[in-house]
Amino acid sequence: MKLSGRRISLSELLSFIMHGMSYLLEGFGKAFTLIFSLDRELLSIISLSIAVSGVALFISSAIGLPVSALISLRKLPARGFIISLMNTFMGLPPVVVGLFLYLILSRSGPLGFMGLLYTPSAMIIAQTILAFPIVTALCHSAIVSVDPIIRQASLSLGATPLQVGVTIIKEARYGIISAIIAAFGRVVAEVGAILIVGGNIAGYTRVMTTTIAMETDKGNFELALALGIILLALSLFVNSMLHVVQRKGQR
Q1: What span, in angstroms and rounded, lies between the C-alpha atoms of 210 and 194?
Q2: Choice among 5-9, 70-74, 202-206 with the minimum mean pLDDT
Q3: Which residues are CB-contacts of 68 (< 8 A; sequence separation ≥ 6)?
């Protein structure tokens, strides 16, 4: 077998593999040590990540759910256009969001006087923009999937339009919760937009995804691996919750 222009023996190949495996295991060992020792920097990064994504999810849900209910329950003139727009924005590239926000929030931009660039607030805005179309589109899908008989039964019993809407939303609750969980999974793993508008400033705007990217470039694999493990565990938890909610909704 040839490697870097020269032939290597099987024993040399096995030696390379064993060396790589030991290096990998050593990195994972140090990463778990950071996790179980509750390293202060690690906890700070994790808490900021969850706080930023949590606030962004709350804002996007507080706006997205009423919007989805409105376009689902009322026959609006631009209903089809709004739905198409939300479905399109579900795949909005994060770096594009980051670029536009940077131009808007930079010193020369229209909102530059607010001084939001390179702050957690800018990161929250970016993640809210990314989460909003996901929440809106998926909640709309959940609401329109409710059996029309429920609406008809509510109206026949003398329910007001508001009461009918509340009843339909209650029936769609599992789909709505799934939409919110899916949006959280998207924003918590996002790196492009928050790296542009947050600046990855140590102790201020550094979150899990941006730290993983930076520490990998620096060769500090222990911290990057530790955060990667935490991020994977969080993603697994989010997907498990999503699965549980979807199973309940199918009963």
Answers
A1: 8
A2: 5-9
A3: 135, 136, 137, 139, 140, 143
Torsion angles phi and psi, residue 118, rounded to 5? 60, 40
Written in H, E and C, the secondary structure of 68-119 is HHHHHHCCCCCHHHHHHHHHHHCCCCHHHHHHHHHHHHCCCCCCHHHCCCCC
Residues contacting 177, CB < 8 A, separation 6+: 245
pTM, full prediction: 0.85
pLDDT at 41: 86
Task: Work out the average pLDDT over 65-84.
Answer: 84
pLDDT, position 145:
87
Residue 13, token pair as written in the block: 């190949």
Q: What is the set of domains in the chain, with CATH numbers?
A: 41-250 (1.10.3720.10)
Residue 23 has pLDDT above 80, yes or no: no
Closest CA to 139 of 164, 162, 161, 171: 171
Q: Burial code of 45-56, b = ≥16 C-beta within 10 A, e = fewer?
A: bbebbeebbebb
pLDDT of the residue at 10: 67
